[in-house]
Amino acid sequence: MQLIQTDEFDLLRLSLHRISFLKLEEKKFLLKKLDSSYSLALLSIEEIEKIINRKIKNRDYWNGRENLHRAQIAMHYCQIMGIKILGCGDMVYPELLRQIPDHPFLLFCRGNENLLSEKSVSVVGTRRLTQLGKDAAKKFAYEAVTHGVNVISGLANGADGFAHQGALDAWYDFCEKGEDVQKLGRTIAVLPSSIDSIVPAGHVRMAAQILQSGGCLVSEYEPKMEMASWHFVGRNRIIAGLSPATVIVEAPAGSGALITADFALEYNRDVMFHAATFGGKACDVAEIVKKQLETEHAAGRVSKYKIENRPEKFLEAGAPVIKDYNEYCRVLDSPPGVFSEPVQGTLF
Fold first, then answer.
1. At 343, is the pLDDT very low, low, confident or very high (cuts 50, 70, 90)?
2. CB under 8 Å to 164, separation ≥6 — which residues?
3. What is d(CA 321, CA 162) in angstroms, rounded to the nearest whole number?
4. What is the DSSP string of 129-161?
5. Measured between alpha carbons, how far is 177 from 169 in angstroms, rounded to an integer?
6. E strands of 29-117, at which residues?
7. Can you state the angle between helices 231-242 and 256-266, rounded to 10 degrees?
8. Which of 12, 158, 190, 348 has its CA 20 to 30 A from that of 276?
């Protein structure tokens, strides 16, 4: 493969981004210290340790020339696919995300990267969504984008997909009616995979529609990077970090959506639960999941944290329950603790 001539600064950033044993601040420091990707590639592990003033445990993983070669390949795909590279020191890098302590050194973006800095709300939830939850996720997202707010989610099956679909439905409706789509928000999908692949594969068409409608796909993983299970948690922190509030639509104990909620609280962002979370069928699903987790925990296969991390924990800490986008706006405009919607029925 013949590589296209690259921008040296981006190649250095990509080379640093790929080094998993470096901390975020160390990557930033090396970016200022080094003048090229080749100077990084020529460093021995001992020289890197001396520069960052820290012993590295996984010393055998460092091969500077191989790292540079893989960065060049990733850069090649960025160029031929029109993938934008956003560094955490760039003006276009979203400020809300930059505020979190573990923000990505680089983001890779397809579509309109400016959306990442505009008004937004994150919407996540379980993959085992009830019909009430499906309708709730779509309706909430539809109303949000018609009010000019971007909807952020993770393109997963379940709540994520229905939130993206609600945003897309608004765009298609405006197009069909000949109305001005410029005043609409868009939808942003944060991928757990490399920026050039779609997970799950069943959402490839939806990803294309997101780009067609003027939205964007974003990932912290460069083209052709292999998928790892821990990427899902990494993706969740970005979803929480990109917006001032996260809305949960159905999430039984142990749900990845509740990990996103944990991140949001850690970042001092608002967390709200849609009332659909406490519908009868959703509670039935939650009870089944709870019993399964308890069995798994007794067998030593899951942690106690998974059982204890459930919506009730967040409600006890003051997280409000909302019925729709209008109530979401009321919560945002209310002082902490002023808006509180009682939940009818059984909490799990």
1. very low
2. 141, 151, 153, 155, 187, 189, 206, 210
3. 19
4. --HHHHHHHHHHHHHHHHTT-EEEE---TTHHH
5. 12
6. 84-87, 106-111
7. 50
8. 190
Q: What is the per-residue pLDDT across 202-244, written as a single tens digit (0 to 9) for each?
A: 999 999 999 999 999 999 999 999 999 999 999 999 999 999 9
181 has a pLDDT exceeding 70: yes
Alpha helices in 246-300 (DSSP H): 256-266, 280-298
Lookup: tokens for 237: 């922190």
The encoded tokens of residue 209 equal: 């529609």
CA–CA separation, 169 vs 173, rounded Å? 6
Tokens of 315: 């409600």
Residue 87: other Cβ atoms inside 10 A: 21
Which of 257, 149, 167 has its CA nearest to residue 206? 167
Q: Beta partners for 188?
A: 152, 216
Give the integer Cα–Cα distance in Å for 65 and 158. 42
How far, CA to CA in Å, does 260 sit from each of 11, 91, 126, 263?
A: 31, 26, 11, 5
User: Which is it for strands 245-249 and 270-274: parallel, antiparallel or unpaired?
Assistant: parallel
User: Using CA of residue 79, residue 187, residue 226, residue 94, what is the dihedral sign?
Assistant: positive
Strand order in the sheet with 216-219: 84-87, 106-111, 216-219, 187-190, 150-153, 120-125, 245-249, 270-274, 321-322
φ, ψ of residue 131 in degrees (nearest 5): -60, -40
Q: What is the pTM of this model?
A: 0.93
Say how far apart CA 76 and CA 325 lie, in whole Å.
42
